[in-house]
């Protein structure tokens, strides 16, 4: 007998599992389909983010930063530490345990909320029927009143550097190195390339990042991107802009990479090469030809502002639809869709989705950049405050970077908050909360911020917008 559900979710990543839990909490009979298996052959929930993305990379970023600090920065605190070494397999093992705990946690949440887990590959058929194919090849059909497609994304492959997960790896392989490569190449100076490159650079690898674009971090505010490039270069990352990879050859556990840049054709040899040129939606065998759901030529599913597809009752969220490929964006889309299915008029504010790069210093922003606003012809006032003037940052020996607040010159409404420095993501989130409620720079400036905190840098930057900063000299108004 065919199982029937109010909601069937395909994919248990940050978009899918959150949608399933929310739908169940709203009283809908819900099933979630997941095919991903861990190394032990067991179904693992959480998608790319929990298994081979956000979480494991943060574990390695934190471990490598602690090692780097102990080796190079403890002396300033009066702490003597000699002969410090890194046990890479132990670091990788810790990461694996964190992943196991979190994926197991999602399974526990499914049980607690009454979500039915269906193990296997989900495919949408006509009439909102879903075919589930188990790892043993057996199939079953389930019926749904509503279907949420949340199949996620995977790394993009490029012909000049085919991944073998040994010498040439993608982001997944870069989380599994058992020793520190002497010379490491990274193709792509985006979020993933910079994070993974910085992990292995801190542990002693000589890292070269090859970026095809001439501009560094084009999505970030120019002032912040400029500061970031300067900082990463100082940290030892060799970032080559305008470097287009044309080919590669693996020989004797090394890879020779050919690329062209402003100086012509170049060759460089690495022990390991990470390909991090972006991600693409996973829609292979997701939709039957008569499912009625439309996709574009790049494999993204067409949806409206509320994530509804061309078929009534079928929705898609996360990396398979337009917009930033971010776990938190996927999760909130999942919540919005579950609430809409339950009859609520949920909306999502796509203008205020924070972006974060978890390097050290962190880089984060929300709202618009100064160059975007300039292009739109919006007159703005800008306030910045350097962490070098923050007492809390000085006490922590972490004074690099700044906070930047951009406000409308006429209304004083905050249009963007951009940070490079300690706890950048947390400070930007404070800005996002204020912006959600239509804050002005003056509002932020009038609030009481506890002292000494890093948050005071946001307070001072907001004051600086109107030339009222206390702890730095204000720019003279022309």
Characteristic terms for this protein:
478 residues; alpha/beta; FAD/NAD(P)-binding domain; Enolase-like, domain 1; 3 domains; seven-stranded mixed sheet; 12 helices; 22 strands; globular
Q: Can you describe what's shown?
A:
- With 478 residues, this protein is of the alpha/beta class.
- The strands form five sheets. Strands 1, 2, 3, 4, 5, 6 and 17 form a seven-stranded mixed beta sheet that branches. It has a five-stranded parallel beta sheet with strand order 8-15-9-10-11, with helices on one face.
- A hairpin with a 4-residue loop joins strand 4 and strand 5.
- It is globular, with a radius of gyration of 24 Å.
- Helix 1 (16-25) packs parallel to helix 4 (88-113), helix 1 (16-25) packs parallel to helix 7 (327-341) and helix 3 (54-72) packs parallel to helix 5 (191-202).
- The chain is built from twelve helices and 22 strands.
- It has helices at residues 16-25, 47-52, 54-72, 88-113, 191-202, 222-234, 327-341, 370-375, 391-395, 424-436, 441-446, 456-465, and strands at 3-10, 30-34, 116-119, 121-124, 129-133, 139-149, 153-155, 168-169, 183-187, 206-211, 238-241, 244-251, 254-261, 264-270, 272-275, 279-281, 314-316, 355-357, 362-367, 380-386, 402-408, 414-421.
- The model has no long low-confidence stretch (mean pLDDT 97).
- The protein has three domains: 3-155 and 280-350, FAD/NAD(P)-binding domain (3-Layer(bba) Sandwich); 168-277, FAD/NAD(P)-binding domain (3-Layer(bba) Sandwich), CATH 3.50.50; 361-465, FAD/NAD-linked reductase, C-terminal dimerisation domain (Enolase-like, domain 1), CATH 3.30.390.30.
- This is Dihydrolipoyl dehydrogenase.
- It catalyses: N(6)-[(R)-dihydrolipoyl]-L-lysyl-[protein] + NAD(+) = N(6)-[(R)-lipoyl]-L-lysyl-[protein] + NADH + H(+).
- Residues 353-462 form the Pyridine nucleotide-disulphide oxidoreductase dimerisation domain.
- FAD binds at residues 58, 122, 319, 325-328.
- Residues 5-334 form the FAD/NAD(P)-binding domain.
């Amino acid at each position: 007998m065919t199982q029937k559900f109010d909601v069937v979710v395909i994919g248990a990543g940050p978009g899918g599992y959150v949608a399933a839990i929310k739908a169940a909490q709203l009283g809908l009979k819900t099933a979630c389909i997941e095919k991903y298996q861990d190394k032990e052959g067991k179904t693992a929930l959480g998608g790319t983010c929990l298994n081979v993305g956000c979480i494991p990379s943060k574990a390695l970023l934190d471990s490598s930063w602690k090692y780097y600090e102990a080796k190079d920065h403890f002396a300033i605190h009066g702490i003597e530490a000699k002969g410090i070494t890194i046990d890479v397999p132990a670091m990788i093992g810790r990461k694996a345990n964190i992943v196991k705990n979190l994926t197991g946690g999602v399974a526990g949440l499914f049980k607690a909320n009454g979500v039915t887990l269906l193990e296997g590959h989900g495919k949408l058929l006509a009439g909102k029927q879903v075919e589930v194919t188990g790892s043993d090849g057996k199939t079953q059909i389930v019926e749904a009143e509503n279907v949420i497609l949340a199949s996620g994304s995977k790394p993009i492959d490029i012909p000049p550097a085919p991944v073998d997960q040994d010498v040439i790896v993608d982001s997944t392989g870069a989380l599994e190195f058992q020793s520190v490569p002497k010379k490491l190449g990274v193709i792509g100076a985006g979020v993933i390339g910079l994070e993974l490159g910085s992990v292995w650079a801190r542990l002693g690898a000589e890292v070269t990042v090859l970026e095809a674009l001439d501009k560094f971090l084009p999505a970030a505010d120019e002032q912040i991107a400029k500061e970031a490039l300067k900082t990463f270069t100082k940290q030892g990352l060799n970032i080559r802009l305008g470097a287009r990879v044309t080919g590669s050859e693996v020989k004797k556990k090394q890879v020779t990479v050919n690329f062209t840049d402003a100086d012509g054709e170049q060759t460089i040899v690495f022990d390991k090469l990470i390909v991090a040129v972006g991600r693409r939606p996973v829609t292979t065998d997701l939709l039957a030809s008569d499912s009625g759901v439309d996709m574009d030529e790049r494999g993204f599913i067409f949806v409206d502002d509320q994530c509804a597809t061309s078929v009534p009752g079928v929705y898609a969220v996360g990396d398979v639809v337009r917009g930033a490929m971010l776990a938190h964006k996927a999760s909130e889309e999942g919540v919005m869709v579950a609430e809409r299915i339950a009859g609520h008029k949920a909306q999502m504010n796509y203008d205020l989705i924070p972006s974060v790069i978890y390097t050290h210093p962190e880089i984060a922003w929300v709202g618009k950049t100064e160059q975007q606003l300039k292009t739109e012809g919006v007159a703005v006032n800008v306030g910045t405050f350097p962490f070098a003037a923050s007492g809390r940052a000085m006490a922590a020996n972490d004074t690099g970077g700044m906070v930047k607040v951009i406000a409308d010159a006429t209304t004083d409404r905050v249009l963007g908050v951009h940070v490079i420095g300690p706890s950048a993501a947390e400070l930007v989130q404070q800005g996002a909360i204020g912006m959600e409620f239509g804050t002005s720079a003056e509002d932020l400036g009038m609030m009481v911020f506890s002292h000494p905190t890093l948050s005071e840098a946001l307070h001072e930057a907001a004051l600086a917008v109107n030339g009222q900063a206390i702890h730095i000299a204000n720019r003279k108004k022309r």
